[in-house]
Amino acid sequence: MSAATRISLRTTARALLYMAALSAALSGCADIGKVQPWEKGTLARPEMTFGGNALQTRNDDHIYTSREAASGGAGVGGGGCGCN
Predict the structure, then answer these.
(1) Residue 69: count of CB within 10 angstroms of its CB
(2) Residue 83, Cβ density class (10 Å: 0-12 exposed, 13-18 middle, ≥19 buried)
(3) Residue 79: which domain range?
């Protein structure tokens, strides 16, 4: 077998392997069911929302603003020390 034939076979085998791996990876997402009624209560809990805890969100915003104030932050001026 010539070197060109071996390279061609390797390339073909590699392409088939990649295609098989991609097919296997995508087939896991093929059957995504809807949220069942008994699961909606869990998803409606405050812990499952973005910003469900107002105090924690305010604290996170303060820390972010204190760290990023030198470069604009969240619209509030001040230093990076957190004393504002």
Answers:
(1) 19
(2) exposed
(3) 51-84
User: Does residue 20 lie in a domain region?
Assistant: no
Domains: count for the chain: 1
Ranges of residues in the chain with a pLDDT under 70 are 28-32, 51-52, 68-84
Is the distance from CB of 57 to CB of 51 less than 8 angstroms? yes
pTM of this prediction? 0.32
Q: Is residue 9 part of a domain?
A: no
Which letter does DSSP use for residue 36 in this model? P
Would residue 70 count as lying in a domain? yes
* Neighbour-count burial of 31, counting CB atoms closer than 10 A to its CB (0-12 exposed, 13-18 middle, 19+ buried): exposed
